[in-house]
Amino acid sequence: MGKVKATREIYEGTLPLLIPEKVKPVKLPIRIKYKEYPMLDGSRKNLVQQVGDGAIIKRFEKTPVPQKKIDVVCPHFLELKWATGCPYDCSWCYLKGTFRFLPYKTKPHIKDFDKIKKHTQVFLEYVEEPEILNTGELADSLMYEGNKKSFVNFIVPLFENKSKHKVLFLTKSDRIQNLMKLDSHKQVITSFSLNAIPVACKWELKAPSVKRRIKAAKTLYDEGFEVRIRIDPMVPIENWEKLYLELIDDLFDSLIPERITLGSLRGLQSTINGATDTSWVKYLSEYSNWGKKIDINSRLAMYKNLISYLQKKHNFTKVAFCKESVAVWEILKLDYKEIRCNCVW
């Protein structure tokens, strides 16, 4: 055996192993493409950009590392794009803009399970850096449960056969029956999107009620699942101070989440153009590199109110923001360079 050299590069599907000199790299059945990314802390890291054509596994990299105070913070995470669309049709859903050119728009559309399996197996087998694969960026992760072929039953065993990577289910659903029947869920993360009840009743009409979502989260929590919570998008409706604190109490009466990610109402112009109910747009008055936002003073007031209450009432400090500006992070004295939000470790 010749001298061994290390390589972390993958070109045209070559395998990132210790490869003896003069020996051709092993060819993968599906190419894994790596890219060097700037990280929020100023370092650089060689990470998977996509598997194969990127139709199934691809890194979310639409948010550049922030340069200005108004720029939003969002770490680059991996998507497992098993489907598109969502049955809940929330008024401000960004999918209305994202899928405006598709013939089926935001109606649930499931991709080929054979292709999903092949790309996922290649990723799980050959990628060394531990990653979380988010199944809920382009679709509600549990929208296919109750069908003859459950996505949960299909995808989770692939991750459970390994011990490095995790799969994230982000949802407004309460269809947790198949999650509850799993033999093992060590590599599973669940995340429920919640809102103040009047906000959900007005703009999330087709989704299960907030109380049903919390009940589903509690059921999984009691069974030992890792449960994260998103309170997003927060809206400064009348009496919002009381309503969002009631949501926090309802949540902590049932479970203690692993972390909470807060976000405020925002809208890309494509989302606003694609919305049928635009009654929420009146709250947007400020511009960022991620569309229009609620004015910064209102956002700060909402975040301060919840963060203070979480600390004082529930002794809870594991809070981060979703697509929020550098200015907000700094004013609230939280370090965005150490971010632990919904979609990352």
Structure description:
With 345 residues, the protein is of the alpha/beta class. It has a single domain, classed as pyruvate-formate lyase- activating enzyme. It has 10 helices and 19 strands. The strands form 5 sheets. A 10-stranded mixed sheet has the order 3-4-5-7-10-11-12-13-14-18, covered by helices on one side. The chain has a 3-stranded antiparallel sheet with strand order 15-17-16. The two termini are 39 Å apart.
Layout: helices, strands, pairs:
Layout: E1 4-5, E2 19-20, E3 32-38, E4 44-51, E5 57-60, E6 72-73, E7 77-80, E8 83-84, H1 95-98, E9 109-110, H2 113-126, E10 132-134, H3 151-160, E11 166-171, H4 177-180, E12 188-194, H5 197-203, H6 210-222, E13 226-234, H7 240-252, E14 260-264, E15 266-267, H8 269-274, E16 286-288, E17 291-293, H9 296-314, E18 319-321, E19 324-325, H10 326-331
Parallel strand pairs: 7-10, 10-11, 11-12, 12-13, 13-14, 14-18
Antiparallel strand pairs: 1-2, 3-4, 4-5, 5-7, 6-19, 8-9, 15-17, 16-17
Helix pairs in contact: 2-3, 7-9
CATH topology: pyruvate-formate lyase- activating enzyme
State the CATH architecture: Alpha-Beta Horseshoe
Count of alpha/pi helices: 10
Q: How many domain units? A: 1
Q: Beta fraction of the residues?
A: 15-25%
Cα-to-Cα separation, first versus last residue: 39 Å
Low-confidence stretches: 1-23
Order of helices and strands: EEEEEEEEHEHEHEHEHHEHEEHEEHEEH
With strands numbered from the N-terminus, the spatial order across the biggest sheet is 3-4-5-7-10-11-12-13-14-18
Helix content: 25-40%
The description of the largest β-sheet is:
10 strands, mixed
Mean pLDDT: 92
Structural class: alpha/beta
Number of strands: 19
Question: What spatial form do the alpha-carbon principal axes imply?
Answer: globular
Radius of gyration: 21 Å
